[in-house]
Amino acid sequence: MLAASDGVAAVVGGRSMAVASSTSPAAARLPGHPLAHPAADAGAAASGSIGVGPGATARSPAAVAPFGPPAVTVLQAGLQLPWPSSGDGTSRLGDLLSASLPAERAAEALVSLLPVAALLLASSMATALVALMVAHLVLRGRARRAALLAASQPTAAEDAVLLFEGEALVEASDGGRALVQALPAGEGPWSRFSAWAEERFPGFSDRIARLTGGGALDLTAAPPLRLRLTARWCHGMIRVALHDPEAEGRTIPVDRLSLAAAEAELAHLRRMLDAAPLPVWRESDDGTVVWANPAYMRLACEGDGRAEALRWPLPRLFDLAPPAEAPLGPQRVGLDDEGPLGRRWFDCSTLLGAEGQTICYALPADAAVRAEAALKDVVQTLSRTFAHLPVGLAVFDSQRRLQIFNPALGDLTTLPVEFLVSRPGFEAFFDALRSRKMIPEPRDYRAWRKGLTEIERAAASGHYQEVWSLSGGQTYRVTGRPHPDGAVAFLIEDVSAEVSLTRRFRAELETGQAVIDTMPEALAVFSPVGVLVMSNTAYADLWGLAPDTLVGEIGVAEALGVWKAACHPGPHWAQLRTLIGAGGPRRPWEGAIQLRDGRHMLCRLVPLQGGSTLVAFRPATEGALPARPAGPPPGTAESVDAPLRANGGP
C-alpha cells in the first residue's frame, strides 16, 4: 500500500512513470471517483496539472492524452490503489478499473484488453500443443525403431530375417540383407525375393497374399532342399524368417580367391542375361515360370499392359511342349500385341535343366514370318500365273521336296493332286511316274534309280534335257533348270504333236528323196539364198560328189566351180550364176554344156515356189543339140568367162 503523500510508479509498456500527489489524500484520488475529495477534484481541475515523478513539473492533461483513452487514463490519474497480487487477474483488473474509472469507460478498457489476452493465451496453448506432438512423434519413432530392431534380430532357429511393409524392405538382419543383395536384379526387394522364394517354395506368392492380421505361414522347400520359411504379422508388417537345418553347427571353409572368382563370374553371367535382347526363362515341371530375365519381364508387361504383370508368379507367355514331347527344331509361337506391330512371333527352343526344370529361349522371328508371308504371296502369284500354262512345272527345294507345281503337271503325269500336295521327295516323285508308266521304261531299273542322282546334278547345273517317248504314244520334253538357294525346276512339255509333225515331215522328205533318187536326171535344188537343199543320186554320180556332204554345205559359187571344172568353157556359166543366185531373174532357162570326157549335157533351170530353183542335167541326144556349138568361138572364151569370175566363179 502506498502512502497518500508519496508518488505512485506505474509500468506501461516496459516504461516507468511516477505520478505526484498532494499532501492531502483526497487530492490524490482520481477525478470523478466516488471517494474523491471535492476540493481535490476542484483543485486538480483548476490547476489542470499532473506531477510526473517527485518534484515533477505540472502538465496539462492534454499532454498525456496521446496514450489514448480509456486505458491510459489510469496513468494520467496518479493511481494510488494496490496492484492485485493473487487471484483472478481479470476480475481484479475490473475492480481496479471500476474503482478508478466510470463504469462505461471501465467496460471499454476491459473489452479492448480481451483480444490481446486471448491471442496470448491461444499462442501459448498452440506452442505447448506442438511441443507435445513433436515429443510424442519422437518418442513413437524411437519406440518403433527399437521394435523393428528387436523384430529383425534372428532367434537361435533363424538364419535370416526380413521385414516388409507392403513391397518395401524396412529392416533386415545381416543375413537377410546379404541374401537380398545377392538376388538377381528386379523391380524391387519384394519382387526379387518373391522370385527367389517362389522357385524354392512352390505357392509362396499365393499363400503370402492371403496372410492377414494375426495369420502365420510355415513353408518347407521342395526336395532335395530342407530350407524352412516362416512368416507372420509384426507391427503391421510381414516378418519373414529363413532357416537352413543343414547348416546348423557346420563351418564351411571358403577360399577368398576362389570366392572372388566365383562372384566375378556370377556377376558377368547376370549382366549377360540381363542385357540379352531375347527372352530367357525357366519353368518348373508344372509349367510355372520360376525365373526370367528382364527381356521376358518387359515382354510380359507389354502384353499385359499393367504393372501387376511383374508380380510373381509371372504369366506364362509361351505355351510350349515339354522337351521330351517337343518337335525337332524350334517351336514358332505368336503373341498378340496391341501396338502397331500386331501379332509378334518367336521361335522358341527348350532345354531340359536340373531338378526337372525347363530352360526356354525365345528368338524373335517377326522378320522371318514377314519374309515367309511375302514368299507365300509370290508363290501364290506365280501359281496363278503358271496355272494357265500348258507346260508342267515342278520345283524342288534344296532338300529335294516338291514345293511348287501347276495343274498342267497333274494333267501330263496323271499324278493325283493329293500326292502332289503332300510335297513328295525327288525319288518318290519319279517312282510315282514310273508306276504310272509316265517315264521311258528302263532296261535296268536299279541303274536308272542310281541315275537319278546324275539327273539331279545335271538339272542343278542347267544341262539336263531329254525327250521321253512313252509307251502310250506321248512324247514329253523334260528340261531341268537350276533355281536360287539350291532349288531345281523341271519343265515337262508335251511335244507329241510337234514330234509327230516332224516325223511326218521327215517321212515326206525321205519319200521325196527316194522318188528323185530313182530318176535318171541329175537334180539339184537351191534355196532362195543360193544354198543346195536337195539333190539326187544321179547328181552326185554326175559330178563325183558324196551325197552325205551335199545338202546344206554347198552354195552356188561352189557348185559352179565343180561344174566348170568338169566341163569345157562355154558362154552360159555367167548367166547360170545370175539365174541361180539371189536377186536374179525368175524365168526358166535351158542350154547345152560339154563335159571334158566328151559327153554333151542339157542343163535347165526351173523356178520353184518360195524362191527356190531346180537345176537339172540330162544327157543330150544328137537331135536335141542346139544349132550352135556349145563351145565358144575361138578367142572368146576368156571374154565369156570374165563375168563368171567377177561373180566369184573359178
Largest sheet: 5 strands, antiparallel
Percentage of residues assigned to helices: 40-55%
- Alpha plus pi helix count: 21
The parts where pLDDT drops under 50 for at least 5 residues are 1-90, 626-650
Count of beta strands: 22
The radius of gyration computed from the alpha-carbon positions, rounded to a whole number of angstroms, is 65 Å
N-C termini distance: 179 Å
Overall form = elongated
User: What is the strand arrangement across the widest sheet?
Assistant: 4-3-7-6-5
Strand content of the residues, in percent? 15-25%
Average pLDDT rating = 74
Structural class: alpha+beta
Features:
5-stranded antiparallel beta sheet, disordered C terminus, alpha+beta, 650 residues, elongated, 21 helices, 40% helix
Detail the topology: elements first, then pairings.
Elements: E1 8-12, E2 15-19, H1 25-28, H2 38-47, H3 61-64, H4 73-77, H5 89-100, H6 103-151, E3 160-165, E4 168-172, H7 174-182, H8 189-200, H9 204-209, E5 216-220, E6 228-234, E7 237-243, H10 256-275, E8 280-283, E9 289-292, H11 294-304, E10 331-335, E11 344-352, E12 358-364, H12 366-386, E13 392-396, E14 402-405, H13 407-413, H14 417-421, H15 426-435, H16 445-461, E15 464-469, E16 475-482, E17 488-494, H17 496-517, E18 522-526, E19 532-535, H18 537-543, H19 556-566, H20 573-580, E20 589-594, E21 600-607, E22 613-619, H21 637-646
Antiparallel strand pairs: 1-2, 3-4, 3-7, 5-6, 6-7, 8-9, 8-12, 10-11, 11-12, 13-14, 13-17, 15-16, 16-17, 18-19, 18-22, 20-21, 21-22
